[in-house]
């Protein structure tokens, strides 16, 4: 029996924060065009090289370096749609991309789990994928669903089983973080078609989308890209994601790292448009820093002022953006670091007007899952969401007559106006739940209780039996071919 909890609460705002001036965005785009035309990007895919050659790009077969003339880039980029809809299993939860609305989801794709029952750390499995998809489905802060941890017990076809587990436990739009390769993605399209009933319905309301990561610096991954082309041809949205590290896989300056990463994203986007004009593509740059003492990955330094500039870069190209937020490097479920590193992220990325955002719920630099962490991170999300809500200013809410009645030195507790509004005035966070003695409880304990309640009481409606039977058939066929 499904719980009556089919609602999402995206951040909606008319407020906007600019990180870059228009002239700076123009200069960055010129640098990207320069890199694409004179430096080039390596494509380890014969299929991609053929497409580029047919459209007049400068293709060096020996090095697999493709150099893209400026006019070719601009012509292809003119085909990228700025707005479209991400379909959900439940049509009431479809996500139409529009100005001033930012949809969030959890982070992915972690590989370790602190077991909810035993507290022991172990490798992630398919059951964890299903568990977190169900928690995601319940939380209004989650507008769509990412593969939060990998199904390491499923082998080569794990991405297909992850999608199946999500659809069994979640009614929102699903975005795969792990699906790669032409063969695997063709099975993914087949599963989406089974869910929707026809390829036409997949194109109209795509129930899934895909993350396609580049390899910094300036390399496109063969399997990721060829799989993405399969999905794009079927009308399924694709995110081209660059994750450069400043000082190692990218220049050690903000501008240099952003220009290089943008060249990676745009080169992949151009290929999608040449192969399938009008393909739905998101732009995404999630850059990090290299520690100069160790070479280690640092995602949250004190000076991270360009963290949300990629959203503006995407919009300057006329593309929707996937932004990042909340992926703390703390290994603890709740610590000063876990909150401090990401406390402003949901507020700032929504003010940058990102269409979709990932990042809630993992620890240890996107690798470690505590199931209760997503409840704590949802508090940070909701603080940002409430900060954007309009405040009603009217004779009723100004309550001047009530203030006049109480007067100087009086007390408002006994007033009818107070009784009417007091309960709703305070919206409790996990830090403000009370015990029987009226004392504040441990927020982690509160979060764990909420996780347990969701798992015991929230049961989303799975796909229809005949649809699930077809999905099972496709999974079996994929196992037979891809697992040998």
Could you describe the 3D structure shown?
It is built from 18 helices and 22 strands. With 484 residues, the chain is of the alpha/beta class. The protein has a domain at 11-18 and 78-388: Trimethylamine methyltransferase-like (TIM Barrel, Alpha-Beta Barrel). The strands form 5 sheets. Strands 2, 3, 4, 10, 11, 12, 13, 14 and 16 form a 9-stranded mixed beta sheet that branches. The longest helix is centred in the middle third of the chain and has 22 residues, at 254-275. It starts with 10 loop residues before the first strand and ends with a helix. The model has no long low-confidence stretch (mean pLDDT 96).
CATH architecture of one domain: Alpha-Beta Barrel
| SS class | alpha/beta
Q: Any low-confidence stretches, pLDDT <50, length ≥5?
A: none
What's the CATH class of one domain, please?
Alpha Beta
Draw up the topology in text.
Blueprint (H helix, E strand, L loop, with lengths): L10 E2 L9 H18 L1 E3 L2 H9 L3 E3 L4 E3 L2 H8 L7 E2 L8 E2 L4 E6 L5 E3 L6 E3 L2 H13 L5 E3 L11 H12 L3 E4 L5 H15 L2 H6 L3 E8 L3 E2 L1 H12 L4 E5 L2 E2 L7 H22 L5 E5 L2 E3 L6 E2 L10 H9 L4 E3 L11 H5 L4 H7 L4 E5 L1 E2 L4 E2 L3 H16 L6 H4 L1 H7 L9 H10 L17 H15 L7 H18 L2
Q: How would you briefly describe this protein structure?
A:
By secondary structure, the chain is of the alpha/beta class. It has 18 helices and 22 strands.
Structure characteristics:
484 residues, alpha/beta, TIM Barrel, four-stranded mixed β-sheet, 18 helices
